[in-house]
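User: Working on a comparison across species. This one is CdaR family protein from Selenomonas sputigena. Can you predict its structure so I can line it up against the others?
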Amino acid sequence: MITRLKALFRRNLPAKIIAFIVAIILWLFVMNEQNPQIEGTFTVPVDMVNALEGYKITQNVKNVKIKVRGARSLFVSAEASDFKAYIDLTGYNSGDYETKIQAVLPQGFELVDIQPASTAVNLDKIIQREVHIDLIVTGTASPGLTVDKISQSMNTVLIEGPESRVNEIDRAVGYVGLAGNHEDFSLQVPLTAITSDGKALDDITILPRTVRVSVQLARGLARKIVSVHPVVGGVPPEGFVLVQVQADPAKIEAAGDATVLAKLTAIDTEPLSLTDLKQSDKRTVQLVLPDGVTVSNREVVVTFELKPKEAVKEKGSS
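Assistant: Here's the predicted structure for CdaR family protein from Selenomonas sputigena:
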């Protein structure tokens, strides 16, 4: 029986092989006609994997277009959610990077292209730092009353955020409104993170967010307009000369005992160093008040003007 089957199989073997090959070709042709290879594009979000904890991570590409090739039947049920795009942040720490975007495709699909193919990524470590709290008094009390003393529950506060942003912060500011008050009062004052040039940064967390402030008012205090005296120390950066220092406001109203005010002609600012100044700079600083003297706002802005030594010499010789 086996011998007869072998003989039957070997009979006209070349013709059988040719027929088999033709059948395969015809099958492939029919399948290609009925279910051809086509291309399609899907828009998908770019995810991040293996990212370090404790960092703020930003990327300039949020979505990519993935172009794929596959049988037409595969596209019938395919959805954008079936395709994945990601960037691998293994080994990345603080800094800027250009990172390749990779894709994960459902079975049967072939990747043709990804646009864009990469994205810029920034990793900024989340840190905390302690800064000083400055209180700014706004408005006026009832007629005949002035601020005698302001007390606060704490003098410093923690700020938290991306390192590059936290390093910009100079202080936390709270605004205390007098609003016609006629007696001592207390309130919770919200704090705002402020840079050295007076800009508020909203993406900084302040811990805690408010400070408890008590305001004591006094009647019968004398008042006097005095000058603001910027206290400057250090030397300008190499190659520069300090040509002007100006406080804003240049004069301020002080309140206190009449005998104390009689001797007072100016109020000093906190010491300011010229060493780390730029060619043109502004600093917000506190006034150093003598005992028994109060002002409505202890904060002033000091402007420094620096010029290259060569420019000053040329002007002097002309």
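For your comparison, note: Residues 260 and 291 are 9 Å apart (CA to CA).

User: Helpful, thanks.
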